[in-house]
Every structure is written in C-alpha cells, then in structure tokens.
Design brief:
The protein is mostly helical. It has one domain: Winged helix-like DNA-binding domain superfamily/Winged helix DNA-binding domain (Arc Repressor Mutant, subunit A, Orthogonal Bundle), CATH 1.10.10.10. It has 6 helices and 2 strands, in the order H-H-H-E-E-H-H-H. Strands 1-2 form a two-stranded antiparallel sheet. 23% of the residues are buried.
C-alpha cells in the first residue's frame, strides 16, 4: 500500500488508467481487468461500482457489459479518482493523523507537510487519467488493448 492512498484508491487508479486506453465508450469486463492488472475480482467489483455511483464510470450488465469511463479520460483528473475513493480531505488532513492539527495548533511536521501537500495537490489536479495511461510503462497496459 502506498503512503498516501488506500489500497482501494490504488486499485481505482490502476483500473481507470487501463480503461483510459480503451476506445471511448468501449465496455471492459471485470474479468478482463482482474486478469490484466491482477486485482482480486470481488474487491475490484466493489471499487468499480463505487466509481460508477459517483459518476466517473458507466456500467452495463449482460454478456457484452462491463465498465467504461463516463467521459473522456483527458477530462478526469487523478484528484477526482482519489477524492471519489479516499475522500476530499486527502490534501488537507494531518499526515500524522492529529485531528486538531492546523495553523494554530501544528504537529511536529505540519509546516514541511504543507509544502509537500501543495506539490501533491498540484500533481493530482494537473494530471489526467489519459496522461498517466499514456506514460504507463507496465506491459499489461500495452498489450491486448
């Protein structure tokens, strides 16, 4: 698990990057996603349902069903995926977990974390799922699409 994101968020980012490489509107089955990016089926199904509920994916049932991005990948930022899974406070909460941490009552790393948090926020807002997918070098994102 990463330092910043939950396992669910990591999987959501991986799955949406994979979907970003598909032709717009083309449905991709959960089975294909689990096989290609090695995420447990039931865990991924729940994540994709959450993303569909929050409007980032569309889903279709049936033999030709699956999931697809709800809009062009260039219009979906990392921050939108992260907020959908881990919540909107990802860029504001205390890195040490102190609820009272803030400008008037800072924790030991508050000032340094504020600088890092700013850079993270800029990266999350400035990168789209399309950009990340194009930059991905893992072979499972390049073959069989």
């Amino acid at each position: 698990m990463s330092v910043l994101f939950s396992r669910q968020c990591e999987y959501a980012l991986q799955a949406t990057m994979y979907l970003a490489l598909k032709p717009e509107g083309k449905m991709t089955s959960i089975r294909e996603l689990t096989r290609r990016i090695n995420i447990p089926y039931h865990f991924l199904a729940k994540i994709l349902q959450d993303l569909a509920y929050k409007g980032l994916l569309i889903s279709q049932k049936g033999p030709s069903g699956g999931f697809a991005l709800s809009r062009p990948a260039k219009d979906i930022t990392l921050l939108q995926i992260v907020e959908a899974i881990d919540g909107a406070d990802i860029t504001s909460r205390c890195v040490l977990g102190f609820p009272e941490c803030g400008g008037k009552n800072p924790c030991a790393v508050h000032d340094k974390w504020a600088e890092v948090r700013s850079e993270i926020q800029a990266m999350l807002v400035g990168k789209s799922i399309a950009q990340l997918a194009r930059e991905m070098r893992k072979p499972e994102y390049k073959t069989g699409l």
